[in-house]
Write a structure and sequence with these properties.
It contains 15 helices and 13 strands. The chain is an alpha/beta fold. Helix 6 crosses helix 7. The longest helix is centred in the C-terminal third of the chain and has 18 residues, at 249-266. The chain is globular. The two termini are 29 Å apart.
């Protein structure tokens, strides 16, 4: 057991084995309960909505919970009330948002110049991508620093968290919530882009470090509010991949991560970090930083490690391995036979250690959603003997 306070006493205490009870046991260091099975189906729902085949209730919170219950998964992923902080700008910043066709144009007007972002919806993949990042040049970076000096982060999505948690527990679930992205991932993924951001780090390290420091300072009120609310589990939704950030982690991310974790663990909050890309380089670093769980671990055939190697690579017998089921296995050319064999392999590889079986990263729009039900039944069969 790690040397921080125990999580607050859970509200959910049925006299039977449930996945939520098993999840709470895992968060308290007990791994001999039943298997917890999670699936992020938000991407699949988006695909059904675009195709006109979605049940309208799936866009409501309780409709989503009923769907998860039907699929046999622990309800967890819900992004309409996910981010625990939001930015506010003073009168020095003016924002314009314009939607034209599939593209959204977002402009921040400042006295130093404008920052412009473009996001484009891609119907072929049912997804949205940033097609123009706001920070392109050194002048943009200076404008961004000006913007940060006129920005603050405020807590969000916490006012009704306890009410929502009670609702979710009736469906054997726990609502997911996340801190704002850590400074480096926010800067690279939301403002500069990975490739351009790496060049900016190399060419203008002082200005980039100033931005990172300001962004971390602005987390303070959000972090304080989260510690006061003390959810059982929160996410660092950093969407990490070793191929992108493995070489930058020690210099730019380990310190901010550890400072956050120290505060959260002192408040009894358990923390998962989202690693949905290549695994080998970052998994041991994240474990060493003190995370309780690393979520969305994607093994072969989609990732860079077999499931059998992940515990050894993590070098931590207490870390909760979360994931193991690549989303690609839900779609052709893979069959239920392929999926069944893989799930059994994960259960064998991780048996006796703390883990959560989960889709890594999401069920795709063309995925066979019935596989979720069949995995739930397979888990029951495996646990029965």
């Amino acid at each position: 057991m790690r040397d921080y306070q125990e999580a607050p006493e859970r509200l959910y205490d049925h006299n039977r084995t449930t996945m939520l009870n098993s999840l709470y046991a895992l968060l308290n260091g007990v791994s001999d309960h039943g298997v917890v099975w999670t699936a992020d189906i938000s991407y699949w729902i988006s695909g059904q909505q675009q195709a006109g085949t979605a049940n309208p209730s799936w866009s409501t919170e309780e409709g989503y919970l009923r769907l998860c219950q039907d699929l046999g998964t622990l309800p967890y992923y819900w992004y309409q009330k996910f981010w625990l902080g939001r930015p506010l700008y003073d009168d020095a910043i003016h924002e314009d948002i314009l939607v034209a066709g599939n593209t959204t144009f977002h402009t921040w007007h400042t006295s130093l110049g404008d920052l412009r972002e473009e996001q484009t919806y891609l119907p072929q993949s049912c997804s949205t991508a940033i097609t123009r990042y706001p920070i392109q040049t050194l002048d943009d970076l200076r404008t961004f620093l000006f913007l940060l000096h006129h920005r603050r982060l405020v807590p969000d999505c916490l006012d009704d968290y306890s009410i929502r948690r009670s609702l979710w527990e009736r469906y054997d679930g726990l609502p997911s919530v996340a801190l704002p992205r850590s400074p480096l991932t926010a800067l690279l993924y939301e403002w500069a882009g990975v490739s351009n951001g790496v060049y900016l780090l190399a060419d203008f390290p002082e200005a980039m470090q100033e931005a990172l420091d300001l962004m971390e300072e602005q987390e303070a009120p959000v972090l304080a509010a989260v510690c006061a609310e003390a959810p059982p589990l929160i996410h660092f939704a950093d969407n990490l991949s070793s191929s992108n950030l493995g070489g930058l982690y020690d210099a730019y991310m380990a310190g901010p991560h550890r400072r956050r974790l120290e505060r959260l663990h002192a408040a009894g909050v358990r923390v998962a970090v989202h690693l949905d890309g290549t695994v080998r380089g970052l998994l041991p670093k994240l474990a060493a930083s003190g995370f309780d769980a690393v979520e969305a671990l994607t093994p072969q055939p989609a990732g860079d490690l077999p499931v059998e190697s992940m515990r050894d690579v993590a070098r931590d017998c207490h870390l909760i391995l979360w994931g193991g089921v690549p989303g690609v296995l839900f779609a052709p050319p893979y069959t239920w036979g392929d999926m069944q064999a893989h799930v059994r392999r994960v259960l064998r590889a991780w048996q006796g250690t703390p883990f959560i079986l989960g889709v890594a990263d999401q069920v795709p729009p063309d995925g066979n959603i019935d596989f979720c039900r069949r995995i739930a039944r397979l888990i029951e069969q495996e646990q029965a003997g």
